[in-house]
Amino acid sequence: MICILRAPGTNCDIETKFCVETFGIEAKIVHVNRFIEGKEKLNDYLGLIIPGGFSYGDRIRSGAILAKILTEKLKKDIKDFIKDEKPILGICNGFQVLVEAGMLPFSRKLAVSLALAENDSAKFEDRWVYLKNVNRGKCIYTKGIDVAFIPVAHKEGKIILPIGEEEKFLKKLIEEDQIVFRYAKNDGKPADGEYPYNPNGSFYDIAGICNEDGTIFGLMPHPERAFLGIHYPDWRLKSREWGDGYVIFKNMIDYIKKKGF
Amino acid sequence: MLVEVNGKGVYETIDIVNAGDEDLIKISRLRQLALNLDEMRKIKNYFQKLGRNPTDVELETIAQTWSEHCAHKTFKSTIIYEENGKREEVVLFKFIKDVTKELNYPWLFSVFEDNAGIVDFKDDYAIAFKVETHNHPSAIEPFGGAATGVGGVIRDILGVWGEPIACTNVLCFGNLDYSYTKLPKGIKHPKFIFTYVVAGIGSYGNNFGIPNVNGAIIFDEGYVGNPLVYCGCIGIVKKSRYARKIKAGDCILIVGGRTGRDGLHGVTFASTELSEDAEEVFYTAVQIGDPIEEEKIKRAVLAIRDKGLASGITDLGGGGLSSAICEQAHNYGLGAVVHLDRVHLKFENMKPWEIWISESQERMLIAVPKENLKEVCEILESEDVEFSNIGEFTGDKKIRIFFNGIKVAELDVDFLFDIPKRNLKAVYKPNRNLKEPKIKPKDDYSEDILNLIAMPNIASREPVVRTYDHEVKAMTIIKPYMVSPSDAAVLKPLYDSWQGIVVSNGINEYGKIDTYHMAASAIDEAIRNNIAVGGRRIALLDNFCWGSPENEENLAKLVRAAKACYEVAKAYGVPFISGKDSLYNESVLGSVNPTLLISALGIIPDVRKAVTSDFKESGSMIYILGTTRDELGGSQYYKMLGYLGKNVPKVYPDSAKRTFEKLTEAIDMGIVSACHDISDGGLAIALAEMCFSGIGAEISLERVPTDENLEDYKILFSESNSRFIVEVKEKYREEFEEVMKGSVFSLIGRTKKEKIVEIKGRNSRTVLEIKELKENWEKGLERYYEKNVE
Predict the structure, then answer these.
(1) What are the tens digits of pLDDT across the range B464-483?
(2) Which of A154, A237, B55, B202 is least surrounded by Cβ atoms within 10 Å, i.e. has the fewest?
(3) Closest residue on chain A to B464 (Cα)
(4) B383 vs A contacts (CB less than 8 Å)
(5) Is ipTM beyond 0.90?
(6) Domain at A2-259, CATH from 3.90.76.10, 3.40.50.880, 3.20.20.370, 3.30.450.40
C-alpha cells in the first residue's frame, strides 16, 4: 500500500490516489496527525506521496510547517523510509515540503540546501509546460520520458540555489545526476529562463530533482493532472490514451514491485 | 428613547412600545436595521401584545430575518405592474418558480428550497449548483469581499451535504481606463477593484483547492459605482446521504472558524444603497476569509455525511447564527434553545447580539442526534476543526437565547417568518430616445476586426484565468482555454464513469436597451454555450443584480426581465433550479446596469465526445447555424464605435430549439469537429477565435442566412442569438446536412492551410492574418495592466 500524506490544506490527494490505484496497488490518504498520534506507522507503507495543495496554508513558507513535522515529530520514521530506499514523490506543495525538510536534494542529513521562491511573475499561474528529461538514469520515476507536457499551478516554484555558490552547487547536482526535469520549449530545447516556457524563473530551468539514490523525486508540475489523454488542453486535436504523468506513476509502482519491499 | 442596561450589561432593551413613527424610523436607521416604517410598526405591535420591549438581540434577529438579503421581499411581494396602460398583479419569484413547476422534470432533486439547486446526475449521485453575489463587500474591500464570496458559495454546497468540485465567477467592473478625476469620493477605481477581486477569487479558490472553471468579465461605465462579483460553486451530492431530518432534541453544533466582530450587519448592509461614507459606516460588514479552515471543515463534513451521523446542516452566511438557526427551526416546524456563551470566539467581551449575528467566515451549523454526538466530535477533532455544542432544537416553535444563563431573547418562530410583504408599484416606460446609428459601409473590415478583438469585453481573459487553478482535482476536461477559448467547461466528476457535467453562463449588456431581451438573450447564450460543447438536459440559475426596487422604473425593468425568464425558459423547456437577487446596487453614480447572470448546468453522456471551438484541419466545411438579423443594438461593435443602438437581439425559441436539438444530434454522431457559439463581436470574432489553432478560413457573407438584405458589417458584427459556427469534415458533409434538415443553416466556406482569415462580402473583402488577430486578442486586456491611466 502507498501512503498519500495529507495535512490541513492538502488538496490534490484524491486524484493522486486515483493515479496510483490505476496500477492495481492500493493507496491510502492519511492525515499527518494519525502518524503523530501513532495510529498509523509510516513503515507499513511501500511508498510515500506528498501531493499538492497548501499545507497549513503555506504559512511561514510554502511547505515549511509540514516539513518541520516530518523532520521533527516523525524523524526516525522518515529516516528509516529513506534508508530503505522506499520511493518518496513530492508534487508541487509536496516538492516544497521535501525541500523544506532537507529531503531534497541531499537526503542523508535532512539539511535544507535549496529554496522554492516566489515566481518571477509574482503570480499564481496554472499553465501547461514542456519538460525535458535530462536525467541520465538515476531517477527511478522518469525512465522512458524524453519531453513531457504537464501543467504547473503554483505561486512559489522558482528554484534558487545557495547564493554565490550556484554554479558549484549546480555542477554537483549535474555530476550526481540529480537534475531530472528542466522547463523547455516545445522542441525540448531548454527554456533558458524565457517566460512562459520557464513559468517561474527557476534557476537553470529546473522543474524537478531527485536525491542521491534517485528514489526521492520532487517536481513542481502536476503529473496527476496529465494522467489521462483527455486531461490535455489539445486532446481534441491530438489523441493520447495516457498522459506523461502516467509514466511517472507507473515507474514508481514498477520500482516498488521490482524491489518487493 | 430609553436604553436600559441590565445589571450585568448583557443586553439592552429598546423602547419601541412607546415609540412614535419618527422614533421607529430613527431606531431602524441608528441600529442599521434597514427596516421601513411598516415593518417597524409590525414589530411594535408584536411587543405591545407581549407587554414588553424587545432586547437588542431580538431586534437584530428580526432585522436579519426580514432583510431583503434573507427574505427577498421584493421577489416575493405582489407588484402592481403597468405597461402600455395595462395593469396586472405580478410576483417576480413566481415567474421563475412556475417554469420549473410546470415542466416538473423527474430529474429535479431539490429546487429553490435548499442552499443550492440539486439535479440528478448518475445513480446515487446528484449535482448541486449555487451562484451568489458579493457586490457590496467587493466594492469596499475587493480582495476580502471577493474571497469570502467564493468561501460563502462553497459553504452553500457543503450546506447541502455536497462535495464542492468546481467554482465559477462572473465579474462586472467599470472601465479600466476610467478617469481618476471623474471618480467620485468614496468610490474605488475599477482597476483597483478588478485587480483585487481577481486576486481574492484566485487566493481563496486556489488555497481551498477547487478549480475555477467558467466565468465572464464585463467592463462598462455602468459598473464603476457598483462592481458585481458573482461566485458560483458546483458540488456532488449523494442522494442517499442527503440528511434533512432534524427533530426536537437534536444538538446544535457550530463548527469551524471562531466567531468575531467581522461581518456584523452584512445582510442589512447588502440591503441598502452604497453611500459615500459606506466604508466607515460598514467597515465591520466585510468578512475575513480563511480557505484552509474551510478545507478542514469540508473534510469533516464529508466524513460526517458518509457515516450518516447528522440530521441536518446549513452554512452560516448572511445573518450568521441568527438566520441559520431561525431558518432551520422554521423549516422543520421547531424551536431552539441557544447558549451564546458556548460559542467559540475570536475576542472576549463580545455582546450577545454580536455573537448572534456575526458573519465570521468558515462556519457551519450541524444538527446532530444526541446518540451520534460523540462520534461527530471525534471526526471534527481528527480534522483539527473547532466546534461548540451551543444548544438544541425544541418542539415549541420558540427561539430562546441565553447568555451565561440569562435569557436575552425569546421570539415566536411564526412571528419571525411572517415576513411583511411590501406593496410595490411598477410602471414600464420604454426608452424612446434610442435610435440606430448611421454607419458608412467599408470595403475592408480588417481594421475594425483587429480593434474589436482587442476590446476589453472581447479580448482574452487568459491573464486572469491563469491565476486561477482551473485543473485541481484533475476533472476539468474542457478548460477555459483549450486551443481556442471554450464556450463551456466540461467536468468528469466520477472516476469510474465518462459521464460529465457541462457548465456555462450567459450575461450581456442589452439591459441598457431593454431588460426583457437582455434576460431572453442571457438565457439563450447560457444554453447555446452549453449545447456548443455537447451539453444537454440543461438547468438554469438566475442571479439578478439591480438598482433599488423602490424606484418604480427599476422595478418595472425587473418585472420585464423576470417575465422573459418565464417565457423563454418555458419555451425552451429548461427549468430554473436556484437563484438569487441582489437589489439596492446603488451608488452616487446611480443604479447599476440592470444585469442578469444566467448560469447553465448540463450533462454530457461521454466527455470524450465533447467538442472544442478550434478548427481541426484544413479543407473542412464551415457552416453557420441560425438566422442573422439586423440586431446590433448593445453590440460590442456599436460600443467600439461609441453607439448604443436600438435593435437589441431577440430570441426566437421555435427555430432556436430546432437548431439546438439537431446540433446535439450531430455532436453525438461524432461528425462535428469544432463548434463555437456566436456572441460578443458577432460572426467575425467567433470565426477569428476558431482559427487560433493555426487553421485558416475562407467564408462568404452572402451565404449567411439573414431575414432581410443586410450590409456586410451587420452580418459580420450582429449579435443575433441562437447561432453557431460549425466545422465538419468533408466526408461528413452529407450526413451533417441530412441531420440539420429542417433548421436554418448554411455552408459559408472552408477551412484552409494558409494561416489567414478571408471574408468575402457583397461589397467588401477582408483578409487577416491569424497571428495578428491572436496577438491583438491576447494583449487586449493586458495593455490596461501596463497603461498609466492619467
Answers:
(1) 999 999 999 999 999 999 99
(2) A237
(3) A125
(4) 8, 31
(5) yes
(6) 3.40.50.880
